[in-house]
Specification:
One of its GO terms (cellular component) is mitochondrial inner membrane. This protein has helices at residues 15-27, 34-45, 47-54, 62-78. By secondary structure, the chain is mostly helical. It has one domain (15-78).
Length: 87
């Protein structure tokens, strides 16, 4: 779950989010860490992504969705985890 290693070595794709969630749990009450938990659960299960693909209007507005995806990719690439950063 949280070994930090991906399937081919290196850092796993969800480990930085797991690390942020654990840090939050140790520093704050559990109720305040709900957004970190939600991010981690989405990372490992992709529930929101699958729901959006199954929606009837998935192919409507593909340009706007593509812009959102590019923005999300840019934010992921710039993301700096609080702890557990591979060096």
């Amino acid at each position: 779950m949280a070994s930090g290693f991906g399937p081919w070595g290196g850092v796993g794709k969800c480990y930085p989010m797991w690390s942020d969630f654990c840090t939050c749990i140790y520093e704050k009450p559990l109720e305040l860490c709900t957004p970190y938990r939600a991010d981690y659960m989405e990372c490992i299960s992709n529930t929101k992504e699958y729901k959006s693909q199954l929606s009837e209007n998935y192919h409507d507005g593909s340009e706007a969705r593509l812009a959102k995806v590019r923005e999300a990719i840019r934010r992921v690439n710039e993301y700096e985890p609080k702890v557990g950063k591979a060096e």
